[in-house]
Amino acid sequence: MSKVEPPAPDWVCLNVDASISPITGIGSIGGVLRDAAGAWICGYQKCVGKVSILQAELWSVLVGLQVVRTFDFARLQVQSDNSHAIKLLLDSSTIGNSMPLVRAIGLLRQEFWQIDFRWIPREKNMVADCLPKLPTPPQFRLSVISDIPEAAVPFLDRDRDGPPYSRRGRGVL
Predict the structure, then answer these.
(1) pTM for the structure as a whole
(2) b/e sequence 43-64, b meaning 16+ C-beta within 10 Å
(3) Which residues form the signal peptide (predicted)?
(4) Nearest CA among 17, 20, 45, 41 for reference residue 129
């Protein structure tokens, strides 16, 4: 069993995720900002339109950084279960990247004292995974969520304490 590896005590963690509706092809994003102990600080969600899953994940990072910027945190760890997105963001030439979203993230990244991008397995990102699947605000509006939605509480606990399931099967162990 695995659980989220929290950042160092003086860091905060942003878990991001995205979802594409198989029916409409519309992408939704969500993220959770947590302290080093795994406690909820805030979350966010937004509809981003017809995009690829990579674009949606990058949108989730960009919007998450914009939300985090409103707080006064000097050290941020961003965790995503999309390895391609993380690989793009770890590249030292993000500002020169041909993808506008990667460039925008690279520019915003310069505003933080320290930022660390990390890939994590999906089963360690369940609370962020559930947010894009909740009903999103209309007309592409950003919803910043101060109180954890009831539907996300069990996922926050699983991410922090370790899930009662494995990647191979969805049943309880």
Answers:
(1) 0.86
(2) bbbbbbeebeebbbbbbbbbbb
(3) none
(4) 17
Phi, psi of 44 (to 5 degrees): -155, 160
99-140 residue pLDDT tens? 999 999 998 888 777 899 999 888 888 888 888 888 877 778
DSSP state of 22: T
Scored b (16 or more CB within 10 A) or e, 90-128 reads eeeebeebeeebbebbbebbeebeebebebbeebbbbbb
Mapped onto helix, strand or coil, the DSSP state of residue 61 is: helix
Question: Which position has the token pair 């162990």?
Answer: 173
The Cβ of residue 69 has, within 10 Å, a number of other Cβ atoms equal to 13
What is the tens place of the pLDDT at every residue in 92-108? 777 778 899 999 999 88
Q: Is 60 or 3 the better-scoring residue by pLDDT?
A: 60
Domains of the chain and any CATH numbers = 12-161 (3.30.420.10)
- 169/9: higher pLDDT: 9
Kind of pairing, strands 75-80 and 114-119? parallel
Question: For residue 121, what are the β-bridge partners?
Answer: none
Rounded to whole angstroms, how far apart are CA atoms 58 and 82? 9
pLDDT digits (tens, 9 = 90+) for 11-39: 999 999 999 999 999 999 999 999 988 88
